[in-house]
Write a structure and sequence with these properties.
The protein is α/β, with parallel strands linked by helices and 775 residues long. It folds into four domains: 30-161, Chitobiase, domain 2 (2-Layer Sandwich), CATH 3.30.379.10; 167-536, TIM Barrel (Alpha-Beta Barrel), CATH 3.20.20; 547-621, Immunoglobulin-like (Sandwich), CATH 2.60.40; 631-774, Jelly Rolls (Sandwich). 24% of the residues lie in helices and 28% in strands. The strands form seven sheets. An eight-stranded parallel barrel has the order 8-9-14-15-16-17-18-19, surrounded by seven helices. It has a seven-stranded mixed β-sheet with strand order 1-7-5-6-4-2-3, with helices on one face. Strands 28, 29, 30, 31, 32, 33 and 34 form a seven-stranded antiparallel β-sheet that branches. A hairpin with a 2-residue loop joins β25 (600-608) and β26 (611-612). α8 (317-333) packs across α11 (369-386). 47% of the residues are buried. It binds acetamide and zinc ion (ZN). Zinc ion (ZN) binds at residues 293, 313-315, 351, 354, 356-357.
Length: 775
């Protein structure tokens, strides 16, 4: 039959139109690949695979539900219900294929133009391959509702990946503040995205017992609730009177726990329960006073308790019976091979005087109460190991002798990890220096109230669970690392997210990626994509990494102050002003350290794509007459707090409320006495001495500051004095002690600040000073 011209034309037109509908695939570059944690090996090939609603998902029979990671995302964000089929079609599929040669939790991923193949040898391996695909997809894949006009393309890559450590953990303290089950489930999702495999739930502490135990219902009825004092700072909540109504709290029923554990398991995560003992258990003692040495009735405390003296009695067998019964129910609920029993921070004063505890010490031939704690933990270890579980505890369980089969969680730095691994025990490294997510992550003047300390994103990134000084043999005992979110200062989900993300991403890379693959510059580029994902998911991640910080140096010859502006992310654009005016897109761009020789208000901000990315930095730097002058200490600062040493008092740099910030000089129990040589007779009107108080950490304002002047450096005259009486203070506070001099001329200034000496609450008395401002 003869085709008409019109017919042929129509066919061609149709083909052309269809061709137009099929847009060309995304052209990727290697820089578009932003997987966190960084995979072990990756080759990028020019090209792309496109998902569409016909893409088939193929899995071995027992791995079908693994595919939900991807399937659920496409259902939500693309509105497609991708079909799961038993065998692969000729093209356009994602195939899971078992490969017994691959490492535990490892996977390989091969993406070509028309197919995607994930090989793994276990459940987690497949999951992680799928999570990698998720991170290769456009960030829009994180949407909870359908987005249109997206090409769901991923670059053609070949990846071989496996974790450096098998313990990749995160601890959530659900006692100090209670977090609903839904929040725990959302945390599990976030852990899975980062290929983390352990969620440690801190279920018991003084301020709340959070897990239903059927045999002891009062643990949650009484121990799960406290008097609501959420309006007061954590360490300023008075002990409530017995019988006061308790309204703050909550707990997980056993059904909740089952749901959490099952959900976690589907995401490749083991939930490790922590049941604290013998201390951090006032919530249990409030419910069952007979568990303590003297059985005094107590309330569940609403806030900080220190030292912790109300602890379980180690003398009575009934204590151990109770704990074994509790752990029986706990083991029923948690399949975790590890059961965490706490063991930290027990003040054993009651044990020294309790008749039952004394009897135990004698009967067991123990030398002291440290050995009694060791007896306690060893007894629990025998019980747990008889049930096939491994006891895990904070590094205090080393004191008095470590139980034979115990695994140690090293938190007071790395010492516990070094010691336990040396003795052939497994360890999980969670040093507070790098893993405590309750610490500040940026400038304390800008950040929301936190516990203290300082743990920036880049410092988390530096974390290495295998520490200097560990032999190869010790290194083999390092199971991995973990971040801990203690929640004294974390009352809400929003705040918990803020403290956790993005620091968890840095930690994930520290425990997953190979040492050779760790590179902060590279991470700082990749993590931007994760920020976008968090944004879409509605995760309240911190943007503290975009804060400007400063590094100030003083040249003693010229008395010129030099200020470097720093952003944690290398190559960030920082804009600044020096005249107090607001920052705009046309403000000066920072390149080199700024030099100042007069009092100056510095404002600075990181910009990203012409928009401010972080909080505004604003500080007035008070330039003064003593800048860079020689300082002689008649009584020198303590070795532990040297501030900026010789020039520390005359470098214009003021300390922050973080007493570890490197600006504070400290005196323990004694007075500060120093002389500033102004180098020529100088007229002055006032001297200001900056001080910090943080009574919770044993730091007190001076009770007196006196200024003496001299022309020859030998005979001094008193020129002014301020006194201040001790006042109880729950916060962290900065104070300037200002001594007016009238108008006087002298060459030498002697400054004497008097230490409080003996605080009413006992303990040592630190005095912290940051600057002597002479005007
Ligand atoms: C701890 O931070 N007390 C383990
Ligand atoms: Zn006792």
């Amino acid at each position: 039959m003869k085709k008409t011209v019109i017919q042929s034309f129509s066919v061609i037109l149709l083909v052309v139109l269809m061709g137009c509908k099929e847009e060309s695939k995304t052209i990727f570059t290697e820089g578009d690949i932003n997987i966190v944690p960084k995979p072990l090996e990756m080759t990028f090939n020019q090209g792309a695979f496109r998902f569409n609603k016909e893409t088939k998902l193929v899995a071995p029979k027992d791995h079908e539900e693994t595919l939900d990671v991807l399937k659920d995302r496409f259902t939500a964000a693309a509105g497609w219900d991708l079909e799961v089929v038993p065998t692969a079609p000729s093209s356009n599929f994602v195939l899971l294929s078992t490969d017994s040669s691959l490492a535990e939790e490892g996977y390989s991923l091969k993406v070509t133009d028309n197919q995607v193949v994930i090989r793994a040898n276990d459940y987690n391996g497949f999951l992680y391959g799928l999570e990698t695909i998720r991170q290769l997809l456009p960030v829009a894949i994180e949407n909870k509702s359908v987005v249109t006009n997206i090409n769901w393309d991923i670059p053609t890559v070949e990846i071989k990946d496996s974790p450096r450590f098998k313990w990749r953990g995160f601890m959530l303290d659900v006692s100090r503040h209670f977090f609903e089950k839904e929040y725990v489930l959302s945390t599990i999702d976030q852990l899975a995205l980062l290929k983390m495999n352990t969620l440690h739930l801190h279920l018991v502490d003084d301020q709340g017992w959070r897990i239903e135990i059927k045999k002891y219902p009062k643990l949650t009825e009484v121990g799960g609730f406290r008097v609501d004092q959420e309006d007061k700072p954590w360490n300023a909540r008075p002990t409530p009177d017995l019988g006061t109504e308790t309204t703050y709290g909550g707990f997980y029923t056993q059904e909740d726990i089952k749901e959490i554990v099952a959900y976690a398991s589907r995401k490749g995560i083991t939930v490790v329960p922590e049941i604290e003992m013998p201390a951090h258990v006032m919530s249990a003692i409030a419910a069952y006073p007979e568990l303590s040495c003297f059985q005094n009735p107590i309330m569940v405390p609403s806030g900080g308790v220190w030292p912790i003296t109300e602890i379980y009695c180690a003398g009575k067998d009934s204590t151990f019976e109770f704990l074994e019964n509790v752990l029986r129910e706990v083991m029923e609920l948690f399949p975790s091979p590890y059961i965490h029993v706490g063991g930290d921070e027990a003040t054993k004063t009651n044990w020294k005087i309790c008749p039952d505890c004394k009897k135990r010490v004698a009967a067991e031939g123990l030398d002291n109460v440290e050995e009694l704690q060791s007896y306690f933990i060893q007894r629990m270890e025998r019980f747990l190991s008889s049930k096939g579980r491994t006891l895990l505890g904070w590094d205090e369980i080393l004191e008095g002798g470590l139980a034979p089969g115990a695994t140690v969680m090293s938190w007071r730095g790395v010492k516990g990890g070094l010691e336990a691994s040396e003795a052939g025990h497994d360890v999980v490294m969670t040093p507070n220096s790098h893993c405590y997510f309750d610490y500040y992550q940026g400038d304390q003047d800008v950040e929301p109230l936190a516990w203290g300390g300082n743990l920036s994103l880049s410092k988390v990134y530096q974390f290495d669970p295998v520490v200097e000084g560990m032999s190869e043999q010790q290194g083999k005992h390092v199971l991995g690392g973990q971040a801990n979110l203690w929640t004294e200062y974390v009352p809400t989900n929003d705040q918990a997210e803020y403290m956790t993300y993005p620091r968890l991403a840095a930690l994930a890379e520290a425990v997953w990626s190979s040492k050779d693959n760790k590179n902060w510059n590279d991470f700082s580029n990749r993590v931007g994509s994760l920020f976008q994902r968090y944004g879409i998911m509605g995760v309240n991640y911190a943007k503290s990494v975009y804060q400007v910080t400063t590094e100030t140096t003083v040249n003693p010859e010229s008395a010129v102050i030099s200020i470097a502006l720093i952003s944690e992310f290398p190559g960030s654009e920082i804009r600044y002003t020096l005249d107090g005016s607001n920052i705009t897109t046309t403000s000066e761009k920072y390149t080199d350290p700024i030099e100042i020789t007069k009092t100056t208000t510095l404002k600075a901000q990181v910009f990203k794509e012409d928009r401010p990315a972080g909080a505004l930095f604003e500080k007035t730097i008070t330039y003064h007459k003593a800048v860079g002058k020689p300082v002689t200490y008649l009584n020198k600062y303590h070795d532990s707090y040297q501030g900026a040493k010789e020039l520390g008092m005359v470098n214009v740099v003021r300390g922050s409320k973080n007493f570890h910030d490197g600006q504070w000089q400290g005196w323990l129990g004694d007075d500060m006495e120093l002389v500033i040589d102004m180098e020529s007779p100088t007229e002055m009107e006032q001297v200001t001495v900056g001080a910090l108080e943080n009574q919770g950490s044993g730091i007190y304002f001076p009770i007196q500051v006196e200024i003496f002047l001299s022309d020859d450096g030998k005979s001094y005259r008193s020129a002014g004095i301020v006194k201040r009486e001790y006042t109880a203070n729950n916060g962290s506070e900065l104070k300037d002690f200002i001594i007016g001099l009238g108008k006087q001329t002298a060459r030498y200034i002697k400054v004497k600040a008097t230490n409080l000496g003996s605080p009413p609450s006992g303990g040592g008395s630190w005095m912290f000073i940051d600057e002597v401002v002479v005007e």
